[in-house]
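Service request form, structural biology core

Requester: graduate student, group of Dr. S.
Request type: structure prediction, single chain
Budget code: on file
Notes: please return the result as structure tokens.

Sequence provided:
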Amino acid sequence: MTDNGVRPYRSSPSAPHGVSPEQRAVLETRGRRSIEFGAAWFIGGLLVAVVTFGQARGEGVYFVVWVPMFYGVHRIVAGFQLVRKSRELS
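Core staff response, request fulfilled:
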């Protein structure tokens, strides 16, 4: 079967084998920023949780913020994956 320039529905041409150094640098920069952003969310959520827990002193109801810490961990993991991907591409 020859390729006459017409591709079947929802098919794409093959991806190029090489990635430019600029593209690798962009991926690594995005990954590092994601790690930094995730660390900021994690630390911020941890500080709010520690402060509210300290103010409760074992009595009453206190507010613990888990979602920002989970989001921070998610961003950190995604950032590490981007950095790893940028280093694996050649």
